[in-house]
């Protein structure tokens, strides 16, 4: 399975459980920014696992990037599983582009209101099965095998998408301030690219076991990079919180971080 790395940790766990071989498209660092390497070949993969907007980097794939992936998938007759659960969380001028608009017959799109509307506990997602073979295989399974969403979960999801625009606009305003605050407050030698989407900051601290160090020295718990298939100098910061809490987190991180020379940086 072709997958951008780092990627959502649950996908890596699932690939291992299913004994599937991941073919990585790795993150490439470029100064203070990064981008994913361009796919030259499918590496024998039969499935492209796409996360767009991307978790954990917050990258919003451009139309040109998606066209490259679509051409690769079409050339190698790959099924594309596109996780688009963060679709509602793209910051202007960036925009989420559904992969199914490029290659509808080979794409399975998964989306949900859970991320944008803070409804993870509702346990409801939507799958658009564009590939006829996948739909036939799913229909051939016993109907009770995969369970079903509750009536309440369905109604809550529909209500969020139909009536939640004003609430979401307010949330996006807060998240926009927060993503920029990280850039302002994080020590300059920590590599951080302001995310184009999501409430996730991907940071390269450049020290061993960054998440473990910051939990011990700053009392701030981040998600460690290896969880997502990245080196342990990386960590993911969830900035979907209030401004004062994020400011406290960043103050503690800045105070605890070693300088490039090994000294402690005191904010």
From TrEMBL:
CDD domains in alphabetical order: AAT_like (cd00609)
This enzyme's EC code(s): 4.4.1.13
Domain Aminotransferase class I/classII large: 2-253
Family: Belongs to the class-II pyridoxal-phosphate-dependent aminotransferase family. MalY/PatB cystathionine beta-lyase subfamily.
Keyword match Lyase: yes
Source organism (scientific name): Acrocarpospora macrocephala
Protein name (record): cysteine-S-conjugate beta-lyase
Residues in the signal sequence: none
């Amino acid at each position: 399975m072709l997958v951008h790395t780092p990627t959502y940790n649950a996908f890596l766990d699932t690939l291992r459980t299913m004994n599937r071989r991941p073919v990585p498209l790795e993150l490439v660092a470029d100064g203070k920014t990064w981008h994913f390497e361009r796919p030259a070949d499918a590496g024998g993969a039969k499935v492209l696992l796409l996360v767009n907007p991307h978790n954990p980097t917050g990258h919003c794939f451009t139309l040109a990037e998606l066209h490259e992936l679509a051409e690769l998938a079409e050339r190698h007759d790959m099924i594309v599983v596109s996780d688009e659960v963060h679709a509602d969380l793209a910051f202007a001028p960036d925009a989420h582009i559904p992969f199914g608009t490029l290659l509808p017959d080979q794409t399975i799109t998964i989306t949900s209101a859970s991320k944008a509307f803070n409804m993870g506990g509702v346990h409801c997602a939507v799958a658009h099965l564009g590939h006829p073979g996948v739909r036939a295989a799913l229909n051939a399974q016993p109907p009770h095998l995969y369970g079903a969403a509750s009536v309440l979960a369905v109604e809550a999801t529909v209500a969020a998408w139909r009536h939640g625009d004003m609430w979401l606009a307010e949330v996006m305003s807060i998240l926009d301030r927060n993503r920029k605050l990280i850039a302002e407050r994080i020590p300059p030698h920590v590599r951080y690219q302001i995310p184009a989407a999501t409430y996730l900051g991907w940071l390269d601290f450049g020290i061993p076991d960054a998440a473990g160090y910051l939990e011990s020295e700053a009392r701030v718990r981040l998600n460690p990079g290896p969880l997502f298939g990245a080196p342990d100098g990386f960590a993911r910061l969830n900035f979907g919180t209030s401004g004062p809490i994020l400011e406290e987190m960043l103050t503690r991180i800045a105070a605890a971080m070693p300088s490039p020379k090994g000294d402690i940086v005191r904010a």
